[in-house]
Amino acid sequence: MKNSQKWILVGLLLICFVLINWIGRMIPGQWDLTAENQYTLSEGSRILLEELEEPVQIRFYYTESSEGLPVSFQNFAERVESLLNQYDRIGGNMVAFEAIDPRPDTEEEEAAIRIGLNRQTLPSGDSIMLGLHVFQADQEATIPFFQPQRESYLEYDISRIIYESTRLFKPKLGILTSLSEMEGSPQMPAMMGMPPQGSDPWLIIQELERTYELEFLDSSSESIPNDIDVLAVIHPSPLGDPILFAIDQYVMEGRPALFAIDPSSAYQRLSQQPSNPMAGPPGISPSNLDTLTEIYGIDFSSSDVVGALINGLETGAGADGLPFRNPTFISISDIESESPIMAQLQDIWVFEAGSLGLSSESMLDMEVLLETSERSGQMMANALQFVQPSQLPRQILTDGERRVVAARFSGPLNSAFPGGLSSSPASNEEDLTQFKIEPLVDVDLDILKSTENAQIIVLSDSDLIFDQFVAQRVSFLPGMETYQPMNDNLAFFSNTIDYLAGGNQLMGIRGKGSNFRTFTRAEAMELEAQSKFQAAAEDIENKMQETTRQLAELQSQQADQRLLIATPEVLSAIETLRNDEADLRSSLREIRKNMREDIENLEITLASINLVAGPIIVLIFGALYFGRRGKREK
Question: Rg of the chain over CA atoms, in angstroms?
């Protein structure tokens, strides 16, 4: 073959490659090979589109003609448009999709600004838009600017505003909490050189505000407003009978409620900074609704904290230099619940959580949503104030049982106030079915037995929605910051509210997939090494304690005999103690060295495979191709 023919062949191959890519983009349908089907619409989105009664207009504004866009941003914008094309295709006649390029100083740009889309300025000085406007009749909703860091929530964000544009009113969510920081405080301008005052609402509040009208309730009030669609009681302070009675009556009517209670608020405990260095350790700040839950037959101990000997979260380095995993900060990734609340959720973190259950007298059904592994147990919550973090694993008493940390309870209930508000709450030792009391004034207006099956979701941890436990701040375009989720906590909490409010379509979509993949093999090796270290450390430390005891006895005998010079026995004991300490340090160094070597070797192997796999495949293909051509020419 002549050289000119070879160049022509290469040119034709390149043209074919370009045509194949172009034809592939034009043909509807796709082959999604991602682990979590990130490029395929979820069943919830399909149902949402199928249930549309009137056509929905979707307008995608993207400044595609702007120069100097980063390649990563262009890829993200193409991902958004590709997903919107799926909505258009599956929605059929009920979805009208239009992609618009709002170039500067055009009517399209003016229209985008008018509906509330945001412009972002690039380092080159150009401004870009990447937003969405959805409307149905006179109802509309927008995404002012798609943030690449929310790519894992992309389908949820799009389906959410389609859902919002089809509703006349937002459901109202009532929040009763002692955590006033959740709501944020108004931003006050800086004065006299002082920084501006105020704080933003927590991320979970910002997320819920997209879908719900929020109303923060006062714990001193005596009723729950009738227009509350869902009630969320989050880490309540000790509540008086009037508000407890109001919650009780709310639940008796079969209206949905979420209780997030906690044996120890890690957020409050870690936030306490005593001004006096001589002050004692911070308290554990528990919360409960025992007045209600005990009568309902929901078991919750506010004096015990769940701990896990595996799946603890890394909270820094220990004294030995190895990563320390706090057994009371637990990552739960083995999610077995088939509830739509848990759809697409992969990893939920809980912090100093409690455990839930049903009493033998309860009339409720319990659906487990979240539970720990068998290698978990409990410890006294009060011990968190005094025990050093490195000693926490020794406090966990395991019994091979899983601990339920989140559950849905449904069924009939008896009121916790069988005599009405004027009487004291019932005792859980009383037989409520036989409870008889003379009617009080207006007691006929009170609900003594649920008129509808109760719908209650209980979380034994209130810390799982704290900002620093759920997301990390990252820089975006110049002058912008956003948050990147570290886990599925926000999606989990929002799903519980959606479920109670009836927004089932959104639950199977939220938090769909993640671009972050953990190095599971390295993590397993690290956990195995840490387990070996823990066993070795405990063995040596037990020996050290015995040696120390013997040393104290010898010193006591020496004092009784009024000897000022150390005896050979004392000197020998001291030498033994020093040798044991040296052995411990040597063992730790050896374990740490072996662990690092194994992980580094694994990383080098994977990097080498990634580096040479492509060229090797091309070489094999080329050798086979030219080998077959040579045989054909012969």
Answer: 31
Neighbours of 98 (CB within 10 A): 12
CA distance 361 to 365: 11
Rounded CA separation 25/473 (Å): 35
In our burial notation (b when 16+ CB lie closer than 10 A, e otherwise), range 150-177 reads: ebbbbbbbbbbbbbbbbeeeebbbbbbb
The two most distant CA atoms of the chain are separated, in Å, by 109
Residue 530: enclosing H or E segment and its boundaries? helix 520-560
- Alpha-carbon distance of 521 to 138, in angstroms, equals 53
d(CA 370, CA 406): 5
Q: 268 in helix, strand or coil?
A: helix
Neighbours of 554 (CB within 10 A): 18
> For residue 207, which amino acid is it?
E
Nearest partner of 298 among 410, 421, 451, 403, judged by Cα: 410
- Picking from 82, 405, 357, 136, the residue whose alpha carbon sits closest to that of residue 261 is 405
At 477, the amino acid letter reads: L
pLDDT digits (tens, 9 = 90+) for 88-141: 999 999 999 999 999 888 999 999 999 999 988 876 677 889 999 999 988 888
- pLDDT, tens only, 426-483: 654 444 444 333 333 333 456 677 677 889 999 999 999 999 999 887 765 555 667 7
Are 332 and 307 in contact by the 8 Å Cβ rule? The answer is no
Instruction: Yes or no: say if 64 and 129 are a contact pair by the CB < 8 Å rule.
Output: no
Chain position carrying tokens 């000022």: 564
